[in-house]
Amino acid sequence: MKLVPRYTQIAENFAIEDFPASVAFPQLLLWNESLAKEFNINVAADLRASTFSGNEKQAIPAVALGYSGHQFGHFSQRLGDGRAHLLGAINDDKNQLWDIQLKGSGATPYSRGGDGRCALGPAIREYVMSEAMHALGIKTTRCLAVVGSGETVYRNPPQAGAIVTRLATSHIRVGSFQYLATQGDVEGLKNLADLAIERHYPEITDTGSQRYLAFLGAVIKNQVKLVVSWMRVGFIHGVMNTDNTLVSGETIDYGPCAMMNSFDFDTVFSSIDKQGRYAFGNQPNMANWNCARLAESLIPLIHDDDEQAVSLMTPHINSFAEQFNTEFTAMWAQKLGLAKADIDDSDLIGELLKLLKDHQLDYTNTFDALTESLKYKATVPDVLAQWAIKWHHRTDENSYQTMRQANPRAIPRNHIIEKIITEYNEFGSSDVLNRFTKVINNPYLESEELLEFQAVPESDNGYRTFCGT
Fold first, then answer.
1. Strands 118-119 and 159-168: what pairing?
2. How far from the centroid of its chain's Cα atoms is residue 440's Cα?
3. pLDDT surpassing 60 at residue 5
4. Please, are residues 304 and 293 in contact by the beta-carbon 8 Å criterion?
């Protein structure tokens, strides 16, 4: 594993050296063998619990990163890694560099009085959700391991503690830039932007202000693609704060996230999202808003005159809507297998979405049924029968394959995640997860275990998620 000196060289107190805190009785609960092979991580089985709990001390300290954040629209200047330690970086089999971080590994200088620990439930949720998202083809952080701490985490109610080992192509957030901008640290901003370009956008070869305008444009493009991919599968992040927005365009922080069952753009699951700021259909607006906050932070790198800088960046920010509409329309065309673009596409899609909402049809299962209706002449829901006649006229021999690649048969539904968490809390393992893993590793394919995980029980009605901090 490589050290990450570049973070400590960005600016003073941007990355503070710190060691993870030891835990009492580390026990390996989850180990991602395929990910370990991808990164050539050869830690002996009997050492994994101690290594990925933080009990094995490094010769060189880990670091906790500083960042700010707009949390539900309210700005907090000093947040930072309050319960995470960045150990270093490793290369995958494609020579891509990934940060490796322990989450729940104890208090840091950014903890603001917190205990720096993570409860078992949120740790299991992050592992299952992030690996499911990866299998669904969505850019995401990855989880290598979950280790039980053998200690109690005092939440309401008290819970078993755990540590997650998380990998990301970097942990550079929009909030990372805000953190340096609020301090007026122009040199630090430049160092951070250059590192982000080096890690994520090496194709940017411009110099001067054009370099950072190109960086802003690249981040916007990736945020558009990310949110469209979320909406393709019905994912609701739940806490799209600027500190949870990576400039790499990867999904991070699976705290109050959930998957939509019945289709409705207004769907909200997070218990703390009282106003629906991060509702399913509002996610594009929030991504656009977060990109605007990044642009504000980059002003000193664009021009000495703030008004000139804003003028130069405004076209990039304004391009978000057009880019999103293009990607969003293409996504629906793929989900419906439309043979070619047509001026009536928006009417056809709009009619379907209204029927889905009015009749509270399940998003995933309905598109799966539509997909299979092309290959096996399977029936579609009765309320879609008349609409389907018009839709079938827009399909061709390639439509089934197009739709099958866009429409998963299974998703990490909320009740499945809750069952897995409950079993880990009670038994330290999960039979449900063992069966579900076979399905979610190939979520677009038929499997023997599939039917169990397509059901939508009444218990998902009124479901609420909670932030795991």
1. antiparallel
2. 16
3. no
4. no
* Closest to 232 measured CA to CA, from 375, 334, 369: 334
418: Cβ–Cβ under 8 A, 6 or more apart, which residues? none
Q: What does the angle CA 370 – CA 375 – CA 379 come to, to the nearest 5 degrees?
A: 45
pLDDT of residue 427: 96
C-alpha distances (whole Å) from 256 to each of 45, 74, 440 are 32, 18, 20
Contact 178, 14 (CB under 8 A): no
Nearest to 154 by CA among 211, 104, 115, 199: 115
User: On the CB side of 452, how many CA atoms lie within 13 Å of its CA?
Assistant: 15
Q: In angstroms, rounded to a whole number, what is the distance separating the alpha carbons of residues 127 and 103?
A: 12
Catalytic entry in 18, 185, 243, 273: 243
Which amino acid is located at 368 in the chain?
D
In the predicted model, what is the mean pLDDT of residues 253-274? 94
Q: Per-residue pLDDT tens for 374-411?
A: 988 778 899 999 999 999 999 999 999 999 999 999 99
pLDDT surpasses 70 at 134: yes
* Selection from 363, 364, 362, 336 nearest residue 349 by Cα: 336
Distance CA 295, CA 244 (A): 16
Long-range contacts of range 5-9, CB-CB < 8 Å, 24 or more positions apart? Answer: 6/195, 7/63, 7/65, 7/86, 7/195, 8/63, 9/191
For residue 305, give the amino acid letter.
D
Mean pLDDT (whole number) for 162-181: 98
- The mean pLDDT of 443-454, rounded to a whole number, is 93
Per-residue pLDDT reduced to its tens digit, 359-378: 999 999 999 999 999 988 77
The model's pTM? 0.96
The answer to whether the beta carbons of residues 456 and 362 sit under 8 Å apart is yes
Instruction: Respond yes or no: is residue 243 known to be catalytic.
Output: yes
Rounded distance between C-alpha atoms, residue 276 and residue 270, angstroms: 9
Task: Report how far residue 194's alpha carbon sits from residue 17's, in angstroms, rounded to the nearest whole number.
Answer: 22
CB 408 within 8 A of CB 416: no
- Per DSSP bridges, beta strands 235-236 and 258-259 are antiparallel
Angle at 227 (CA atoms; ends 226, 232), nearest 5 degrees: 100
Residue-wise DSSP of 423-435? HHHHHSS-HHHHH
Is the pLDDT assigned to residue 86 strictly greater than 60? yes
* CA–CA–CA angle 247, 328, 336 (5° rounding): 135
Residue 59 has what pLDDT? 72
Q: What is the reported pLDDT for 342? A: 82
Q: How far apart are the first and last CA of the chain?
A: 28
Checking if the pLDDT of 184 tops 60, the result is yes
Q: How many helices (H) and strands (E) does the chain have?
A: 15, 12
